[in-house]
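Person: Please work through this fold.
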Amino acid sequence: MKAQLDMDKIAKGLGAERRGKVAAKGGHFGAHELAAEVSARFRTPAGGGRATVPEWTERRLLPLAPKTLTRLDALAAKLHKKSGVGIEPMQLAALLLERIAGAISDEELEEMTSPPLVERKAAG
């Protein structure tokens, strides 16, 4: 089992101050972050089978365009190669959906659901 890094101790040793979490959004570093998250969160059940996130207990159907599923399939294959953890395209979709749902603010949600400015002017 890997030893956990004490980030506070490392920061103190470097004469630095921890100010918060930095999250990669996309590109090379985002791919590495996603691969690390897959490695850290996905666990193979004790009885065997496909690795999954133990907290995922809800099962739902999610309609997708074929193009989206093809892209998820390609991304899952790359993550499997990079992290060594077998991940299915819909598991990746769940992980990405979880990330986005946790990151969106109430203000962003309000902005997404308000009518465009052109519609508001026409109605007023």
The longest helix spans residues 66-83.
